[in-house]
Amino acid sequence: MAARPPTDSGDRRDPDVFGIAAVDEHLADADLSFPATPEDVVDATGDPEVLCAPNGHGVALSSVLERTGRRRFDSRQDLLDELHEAFEQERRDGVGIVAWLRSLVGA
Q: This protein's superkingdom (predicted)?
């Protein structure tokens, strides 16, 4: 049985862009220079909720930055590389009965 697509809640996030690709989009619009601290990244991006997977599960960027344990990122690529594993862990943690039920009801 296939999951129903999510209903349009007015949120215009692209469900095909998630994880570090979504963070990269937020960074493109941010006034941020490197090296940067996690606080610099949050301040520059506004701490957006970033999708972890196409199912709509999202997490605040600040939470993912905390998971890295890093206090400084030397470059944009360094930041994205560090966030990759943190997003993968969040994605794995978000897969379960609750995420499955959400996908069924479109929440």
A: Archaea
d(CA 49, CA 51): 7
Instruction: Domain count for the chain, please give it.
Output: 1
Residue range(s) defining the domain that contains residue 51: 20-102
Selection from 60, 48, 55, 47 nearest residue 87 by Cα: 60
Short-list 26, 9, 6, CA closest to 80: 26
* Pairwise CA distance, residues 37 & 100, whole Å: 35
Task: Decide: 32 and 40 in contact? Cβ < 8 Å.
Answer: yes
pTM for this predicted structure: 0.71
92: alpha, beta or left, given left = phi > 0 and alpha = psi -120 to 50? alpha
With respect to residue 11, please indicate whether it lies within any of the assigned structural domains. no
Query: pLDDT per residue over 5-45, tens digit each?
Result: 444 444 444 557 888 899 999 999 899 999 999 999 999 99
Burial of 52-64, coded b for 16+ CB within 10 Å and e otherwise, reads bbebbbbbebeeb
